[in-house]
Amino acid sequence: MRILGLDYGAKTVGVAVSDPLGLTAQGVEIIRRQRETKLRQTLARIEELAQFYHAEKIVLGFPKHMNNDIGERAEKALAFRDMLEKRLQLPVEMEDERLTTVEAIRAMNDMNLRGKERKAVVDEIAAVFILQTYLDRMQPAREQETEV
Question: Where are the alpha helices (DSSP H) in 53-114?
Fold first, then answer.
């Protein structure tokens, strides 16, 4: 089963996909839009990617505050989740993304990415970390299913 991972931002959506076994996440692309409110083309592109990869689920980053409160960005992510579920008819699970930004920055530092290079890939890397966090969290449940 393949899963899409999304890092939803004000003007971009980073996209990642799992391997068919649901063990690893790989970056796919960054979807860019002119304005935050222009989502029709973004949703259409995500739908194309979900169909191309035969995704059965979507994992969407949930940007909570460090104190676990839900702010404006998290509310927008929840509204985006609702739009995705309605349009794609796929389950969308929210994944806490608070520490994924730190991991993405660390990864970019390790790759010596700076300036424009960094800006060009940060959302895709964040999507990979969001999805990989979800896959790692689900691993014990998958192992238990195979033992039965």
Answer: 72-88, 100-110
Specify the amino acid at residue 139: Q
Q: Could you identify the residue written with the tokens 């930004």?
A: 101
Cα-trace Rg, the chain: 15
Looking up tokens 């794609």 gives 88
* Right CATH for 2-147 from 3.40.50.150, 3.40.50.970, 3.40.50.1370, 3.30.420.140: 3.30.420.140
What's the Cα-to-Cα distance from 5 to each of 52, 94, 102, 113, 148, rounded to whole Å? 14, 10, 17, 22, 28
State the pTM of this model: 0.87
Q: Tens digits of per-residue pLDDT, 39-88?
A: 999 999 999 999 999 999 999 999 988 888 888 999 999 999 999 999 99
